[in-house]
Amino acid sequence: MGKRGVSTQSVISEVGDTERAADEIVRLAREGGEAERRAAAGAAIRLFFSDVLRHVRARIPGEAAALEDILQEVALAVVEGLHAVRAGAALRSWILHIASNKVCDHLRRRVRDRARGEARLGQAVLAHLVDENASFERLLERAGDEQLAAYLRRALDRLKPRHRDVLTRAYLHGESIDALVTTLGLKPDAVAALLYRARGALGQLLARDAAMAAASTSRPDEQATPVIPLLRAVRKC
Prior knowledge:
mainly alpha; 2 domains; 12 helices; 0% strand; disordered N terminus; disordered C terminus
């Protein structure tokens, strides 16, 4: 096993079971030359590839491109750090720990990217709200952006039910003041006042989101805006 030019396959095939193979991989990485260390790293990756694949796939389901990138990052980290592993028994947990760290790095990047995007969207909506005659429907048509539509709906979901209802009816469904008077059982002045308060509440919410998202991009180590559901995954890292 100490020969030059040892192959990835031979490191595993010459040893019968996983535990003994892990011991031999660690020994080769610590005692061998450059070729042996690379062969040992390749063997380690092959030996626990299915475990790493399941581990990463379970944490980022449906992300084929990200999965491939993370597997490559894990492989590179194994090549670079395998010589520091001291016992074969620790090899599998060490590789899975690397995989966990790479997944967390990926999720944090997604949070930061999403925060930047939502900061821009929040600012766009705020600018739109300055126009008293503006409608959310026209905003969505002009933006032509599914992400913007989803962001607005998440924002509306966070309002008080009465505010959410009147904004949805007026701006997403296009109901007139007269229709709202009938539907809500309010006088015209009361409907106008309710719309004014609801628009103000939404504007404040969007302003907070934009500020928090902007802050998260300048301080990547901090948590981003709470409208991002990815934070639940990141908090597990």
